[in-house]
């Protein structure tokens, strides 16, 4: 999927949150959004995930404006997008059932009922639950293939986030939208998820990721976008944005040299 925001703006009750954002994510590309808290990063991701409609401008997926489509067609388009939030939200069931949840809700009810009957039959014949190959493949990408039958309640925070990532990957989405997925993780779990992001890119998934970790943005990005006060200040390859930024506001941010006066950011 080729995703694009074209001069998109978003506001609530007359208060602007994003203004005139133009941003594209191509297949097999990782675009990372950086910026201070309150800059509008999460709102931008919600537009990309088709959770919110821009108040002005356009969103396009493969050239199609999803908000001009009938609800059913827009839902089908949204199901081509995988989303991972900052906090893992797992169901009280096994790891495999959590990972398969995203695929189940994308199926028609007839297919869901057939799958339920097949699982019951397999359990009756074999005496143990079975797991789908695509679920195992997604768990393999996050290093948890052998943990498929664990109770999700027994997982550490880092393992739970890896399961959330596998759940987003299992339906094989064309665009991944990731809202600070490694912000609370230790270095090992962070490295595992960064490797999984790289492998998703290798499979031609587009990735749009928000992060506060500048080193992460340098490591995994094809392009980095700097967002400040709802404005896209600049976007480019990480080596340019971090080493030779074109805007002084970007330079201040990446240096950690932002100035404050009476709790207001001076730019």
From TrEMBL:
One of its GO terms (cellular component) is membrane. Residues 3-254 form the ABC transporter domain. GO terms for biological process: phosphate ion transmembrane transport. CDD domains: ABC_PstB_phosphate_transporter. The keyword Cell membrane applies. InterPro entries: AAA+_ATPase, ABC_transporter-like_ATP-bd, ABC_transporter-like_CS, P-loop_NTPase, PstB-like. GO terms for molecular function: ATP binding; ATP hydrolysis activity; phosphate transmembrane transporter activity. Keywords: ATP-binding, Cell membrane, Membrane, Nucleotide-binding, Transport. Gene3D superfamilies: P-loop containing nucleotide triphosphate hydrolases. The keyword Protein transport does not apply. Pfam families: ABC_tran. This is ABC transporter-related protein. It comes from Natrinema altunense (strain JCM 12890 / CGMCC 1.3731 / AJ2). The lineage of its organism: Archaea, Methanobacteriati, Methanobacteriota, Stenosarchaea group, Halobacteria.
